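Side project, low priority. Logging it here so it doesn't get lost.
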Amino acid sequence: MSTRSASRSESPAPARPDFDAAFRARLRDLLLWRRDVRRFRRDPLPTGLLDALIELACLAPSVGLSQPWRFVIVEDRALRTAIRRNFESCNATALARQSPERAALYARLKLAGLDDAPCQLAVFADRATAQGHGLGRLTMPEMIEYSTITAVHTIWLAARAHGIGMGWVSILDPQKVAALLQAPPDWKFIGYFCLGYPQAEETVPELEQCGWERRRPPHAVVIRR
């Protein structure tokens, strides 16, 4: 037997965790209580928690094990102010494109927690990464972006498990945000996120509460062939 084969046989496989019914019920609770939070308390996150959440995000699946996600933690006050101004400009444009009826409702929506969230970070997908050696990207190069989004969802759930809310600020100019944060040209901007303790705990999305939209039932999005 070769040394390599012997070393493999000497390493026992880890025991599979028992994800029992109680755990599955708690997992459903986690998914239910994960909300897109926009109303934050200003309390700081515990020291080291953000790093721990990012470590969990890096356990997300990625095409070819490319791990293309790149996290930019935005702490500089001037940068945060510039991001806030970019949001205000884009939000005004979006408001102007709504119908009169929708515009009245849109104007009342709180669409970002940029003023209060103690933690803010931008997430990029590194489309030029050599990691993964291109596996799985020949016909679908966008798998790099999709992989990064799985990391976003992972950190979202991990944060909720710690009682931390997370909000996705999508009303931004991607190119201007990338320029502000000095991102390399091969990095694709995926999203800007606020993290902090939510002011209120809700299982119903705020957009549904205010009448903007309603969640569709699962059977409405399933097609069988």
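Brief comment: The mean pLDDT is 93.
Revisit when time allows.
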